[in-house]
From TrEMBL:
It is a peripheral membrane protein. This is Cell division protein FtsA. Pfam families: FtsA, SHS2_FTSA. Its main location: membrane. It comes from Aquimarina algiphila. GO terms for biological process: FtsZ-dependent cytokinesis. Keywords: Cell cycle, Cell division, Cell membrane, Membrane. Residues 9-197 form the SHS2 domain. GO terms for cellular component: cell division site; cytoplasmic side of plasma membrane. The gene is ftsA.
Amino acid sequence: MEREVNEIAVGLDIGTTKIVAMVGRYNEYGKMEVLGVGKSKSLGVHRGVVNNITQTIQSIQQAIQEAESVSGLKINDVTVGIAGQHIRSLQHSDYITRPNADAVIDEDDIEKLCNQVHKLVMLPGEEILHVLPQEYKVDGQAEIKEPVGMYGGRLEANFHVVVGQVTSIRNIGRCVKSSGLELSDVTLEPLASANAVLSQEEKEAGVALIDIGGGTTDLAIFKDGIIRHTAVIPFGGNVITEDIKEGCSIIEKQAELLKIKFGSAWPGENKDNEIVSIPGLRGREPKEITLKNLSKIIHARVVEIIEQVFLEIKNYGHESPKKKLIAGIVLTGGGSQLKHLKQLVEYITGMDTRIGYPNEHLAGNSDSETTSPMYATAVGLVMDGLIHIKKHKKTVKKETLASAETASQPEAAVNEKTVVEEENHRVDLKPRKNILEKWTEKFKEFLDNAE
């Protein structure tokens, strides 16, 4: 059991409608195997933002307990996703002048450049979450993907900067800690969903991922394999349910069932005489609702959501030939299961569309429930957690070897040195991953100070 614990990762998706805890590990073929899933109704979250800490803690504990009983493993640390209406992104370019142009550009130069971006002045109460380098320029030579190893005096880069509200982020951290868990990693939810459902070819060709959740709709745009734009739109499936509730004068539970069972985003599909009868409340007459009217209500709201997302895609510059998203749109999240949504999105945007199932990296024998678009974010978070563990192991291994070679000291001394180096947590990997890891470390420190 102990051996497995080192190799498993847990993703915690704190959503507006549900909280999902997913336990997973890599199988011998390098695919992700889901060992257990726990889910609970999310009561203290509104549009991706925690607004009731006590209720959120209870929901997290419930989901974790269920995942523990299914997988038979004790959960200590989790990888958490951050989303919510407070997330925004901006493009920024920055440069550094290197003191010695004849020296090779190394990781430290890139780190220095990224740290400079972290010093950007934000609006009050906002904090930079991710600084993701896109292309670099060395002495005016543009479109360089990997500047390490080149010579040059001026290193310049375009950055995709993701910004969020300090209090909202701190609240999520506090909920996780109060649930008796450790934060092993923090990821932006649109990025996690993208990892789970998109193939590398799609990211290269250009693709927009639309994750329709309960409270928010997340957008992530990739082109040439690099994240280009992220946005969170504060509408999701719950707004559609709310509209059905108001429009048909029924209770929320019935509205949700109606949406799932009979809902369609395309009113033309329903005939005029298709009627569904809903039992009345406590001795009242049953209500009769035509499916055409139901679809009209859903259609109106879905069009609004899609048009907002399409506006973001246009703002990114999808219409210019160089930024064209060849792979079109991928829809995921619970809201993507609405009937005829794919056709409606294609009709509004004129872009190829498919529904994204998170089976890209899952083992072949996975339960059909876990390959549902509803679990895309959770699957992505587990993948992020596993990658994080893998990297950490590699680092420790490298450093153990290095320290064993440099010193022919007694074994205890070597181990001591390894521990110290492990605490220093130096990761010899590609710069982009490096930056994210450093950010996670800083973020954890920030949460500890906030306690």
